[in-house]
Design brief:
The structure is a single chain. By secondary structure, this protein is α/β, with parallel strands linked by helices. The chain has two domains: 173 residues, Rossmann fold; 209 residues, Rossmann fold (3-Layer(aba) Sandwich). The protein is built from 13 helices and 19 strands. The strands form five sheets. The chain has an eight-stranded mixed β-sheet with strand order 12-11-8-13-16-17-18-19, sandwiched between helices. The chain has a five-stranded parallel β-sheet with strand order 2-1-3-4-5, with helices on both faces. Helix 1 packs across helix 8, helix 3 packs across helix 5 and helix 4 packs across helix 7.
């Protein structure tokens, strides 16, 4: 079973069998897929907007010109792991085959690079028409999957080829298509993120600038690649990712306890959190007056990564080294030393001088491996880095990558 987090765009075109896609949507949800329905205008004559919203539990976009500032066709294309058009009429297959994009669904398809699957359903004469067959062959030649329609009783009362296939057949085709992309399927990934806070009094704390964005990007990428993901998040103002088990913590000791409870079952452990090095030795239950705040006695927090590394059996462990070194060479040397000291398989080094990286969706740095390899990551999105790290993790897990 796929975990929740794999995004499917379900395009519904204007055929009477559009109602059968309601069952298909439910079957896909049962397998954990997240579904965004994009109906064509003509399909709404058969199944209404409110039905799709109720079944999918999501807003249902229908118009290319709504919320133009959000560029919806590009956003929808980027978030999808696959696009499934069911039913697919002769009209929409002809449009896609010739590159016509005159509504939201065809624009999303044209802007996407993910697997595209058509589920034709129409009268026999329409399916067998030479123009339709030529378009089907053209679509298949481009690498798109066009499922053969079933034979049987049609809406007109005739019997022949053109029936909407059984939902199980469509689901099998989709899962088979996506299986090669789920290179972490069956694996458990444990991720820490955010910055711990150590209370001085009810108002103040010792902490850092970590937003947790990189850890959330790693969780998103891992669950989309089929992993079962547990995210231990410290003080992050980011919405939980559906399908990711998120454990919210505040302090270093809370984070340590949460990570230790999930460590043994993990195949991959990614330590992206910024853990406070120290905590106050005494917590003041009332606010300390400003004039009395001259010194704060502290004790060291445990080195969580190092402690977990001592317990590891076959886990792949990834760490992060945010440094403010005077030179790149010094920063890389510090990151390499951290990797060896903490028993890591990979470490990501980045320079955070001047507050760079924190709170941003972008990052830049270098991935180092325990075998001595280095991989430059020039400025790019944190989710792109997440997938690059997971590519290397998959190599170590002896998984083929796409």
């Amino acid at each position: 079973m796929y975990p929740r987090g794999r995004e499917i765009v379900l395009g519904v075109s204007g055929g009477i069998s559009a109602y059968k896609s309601c069952d298909l949507l439910r079957r896909l949800q049962d397998l954990g897929f997240l579904i965004t329905v994009i109906p064509t205008r003509s399909s709404l004559n058969f199944v209404g907007l409110s039905t799709w919203e109720a079944l999918s539990g999501r807003p249902v976009p229908t118009e290319l010109w709504n919320n133009v500032h959000q560029v919806p066709h590009i956003a929808l294309a980027k978030q999808a792991d696959a696009i499934l058009v069911a039913p697919a009429t002769a009209d929409i297959m002809a449009k896609v085959a010739t590159g016509i994009a005159d509504d939201l669904l065809t624009n999303v398809i044209l802007a996407s690079t993910v697997p595209l699957i058509f589920v034709p359903a129409m009268h026999s004469e329409m399916w067998l028409n030479s123009a339709t067959q030529a378009n089907v062959q053209l679509l298949r030649s481009r690498g798109h999957l066009v499922i053969e329609p079933d034979s049987g009783k049609l809406t007109s009362g005739d019997v022949g080829v053109g029936r909407y296939p059984d939902s199980s057949k469509i689901v099998d085709c989709l899962t088979t298509t996506l299986q090669s992309r789920a290179d972490l399927r069956g694996r458990s990934v444990l991720i820490s993120t955010g910055g711990t806070r150590e209370a001085i009094d009810p108002v103040r704390f010792i902490g850092n600038n970590s937003s947790g964005r990189q850890g959330y990007a790693l969780a998103y990428a891992a669950v989309a690649r089929g992993a079962q993901v547990t995210l231990v998040a410290a003080n992050c103002e980011i919405a939980d990712i559906e399908g990711v088990k998120t454990v919210h913590v505040t302090t270093a000791l809370e984070m340590q306890a949460a990570l230790e409870s999930h460590f043994e079952s993990a195949d991959v452990v990614i330590m992206a959190a910024a853990v406070a090095d120290v905590r106050p030795s005494v917590f003041n239950s009332t606010k300390i007056a400003k004039e009395d705040l001259s010194a704060i006695p502290v004790v060291k927090n445990p080195d969580i990564t190092k402690e977990l590394s001592r317990r590891k059996s076959s886990q792949i462990m990834v760490g992060f080294a945010a440094q403010t070194a005077e030179s790149r060479a010094e920063g890389l040397a510090l990151a390499s030393a951290k990797m060896k000291d903490k028993g890591l398989d990979l470490v990501y080094f980045n320079d955070v001088s001047g507050g760079a990286i924190f709170g941003s969706d972008k990052t830049a740095g270098v991935i180092l491996t325990a075998t001595g390899d280095t991989y430059e990551f020039n400025s790019g999105l944190k989710v792109t880095l997440a997938n690059r790290i997971l590519d290397l993790v998959c190599d170590k897990l002896s998984y083929p990558n796409d």
